[in-house]
Specification:
By secondary structure, the chain is an all-alpha fold. The chain contains five helices and no strands. Transcription factor that acts by binding directly to the RNA polymerase (RNAP). Required for negative regulation of rRNA expression and positive regulation of several amino acid biosynthesis promoters. Also required for regulation of fis expression. It comes from Endozoicomonas numazuensis.
Length: 147
């Protein structure tokens, strides 16, 4: 993913007002759930708009260049855009799965150990399914198996 795409996605995730927890507030109460539904739906909407922009761009820019270098440059640009869109398509599916988890009241808790993932972590990565400790362990195991 290009640095600009990462920056764009990062901007999306910063475009909301962080949730302010009240002392003694129950975790994943109605207000918190609504907060995350709004973040996820906004993120999905912006990703879908980006997909539409790419399709329009590719249709508008598609040309049969007689120069092989120009044609190769355009094909490489389109290939990069399509790979990015494929990653975004997968992310949209992940967002949909996360919204389903919210409906099933299974959102915000670690799939591995069952503890609260935490509001701040979920704001940073709304599709997270592991608490920071379990995610760290998973990454260590992955690194060990990959070497």
């Amino acid at each position: 993913m290009s640095a600009q795409k990462k920056a764009d996605q990062g901007n999306l995730l910063r475009s909301f007002t962080p949730y302010v927890e009240k002392e003694g507030e129950e975790y994943m109460n109605e207000k918190q759930v609504e907060h995350f539904i709004n973040i996820l739906k906004q993120w999905k909407q912006e990703l879908m708009e980006e997909v539409d922009r790419t399709v329009n761009h590719m249709q508008d820019e598609a040309a049969n260049f007689p120069d092989p270098a120009d044609r190769a440059s355009q094909e490489e640009e389109f290939s990069l855009e399509l790979r990015t869109r494929d990653r975004e398509r997968k992310l949209i599916r992940k967002i949909d799965k996360t919204l389903t988890r919210i409906e099933e009241e299974d959102y915000g808790f670690c799939d591995s150990c069952g503890v609260e993932i935490g509001v701040r972590r979920l704001e940073a990565r709304p599709t997270a399914t592991l608490c920071i400790d379990c995610k760290t362990l998973a990454e260590i195991k992955e690194k060990q198996l990959g070497q």
